[in-house]
Please model this.
Amino acid sequence: MKPILTSLTALLFWFNTNAQSNFYKMSIGAGAGITQSFGDLAKHDYGLAGYGSFDYLFTPFVSLGIEGQMGEINGGDIYTDPYSRQFINSYKAISINGKLSLGAVIDYGRTGFANAIKGLYVGAGAGVLMNKMRFVQRYDLNNPDYIFPGKDSSNDLLVPLNIGITFNFMDRYGYSKYGINFNYQANVTLGEGMDGYDDSPLKFKSGKPDIYNYFSIGLKYHFGSIGLSTKTLY
Model:
């Protein structure tokens, strides 16, 4: 009887340890991508931007981090815009973001579609958009007496909304050390500084906040203290 109990205990221990995995609790990332403006101007143009990030992982699928961006947000066109408006915003942004990955809420195996997409995530946060106009057209070519009001430098509160996926790769010790990330971020600004124009709503009726989208690809490096996941990661 004793050998049987010993064998059952060993088998249960084997199943338990194989249902758990270790993971690094911190990661840094960097990448680049394309911005697209959705402000008060008719033309939603594109710009280039880069980012850097640091995340703390409470579990492999739940994180809180900080992200910095720097690049350009562009919009309008002097010759095609009805009021000759155009801007180039050499912006910087910093935000805190929380993310929840699909692997936290679904069951997945070691293979198959569910396992492949367990790194799919959604997230939201808060931050500051620091606007710096490299160029802004302040007067209408057809009505040069009217000067468009607005600031060349300003700060706006920012609400980033994220959806993306991270594919992690194991190192020789069996840990997820490296990753590649694809992210779409919609940034809702609480202010009128993104496009450099702050006209009276009686003249230019909008009613919508300024938004810029950011499509990015980046690399991640995991490091730091080790955590224990109740789910297998491999």
Observations:
- Helices lie at 2-18, 113-116.
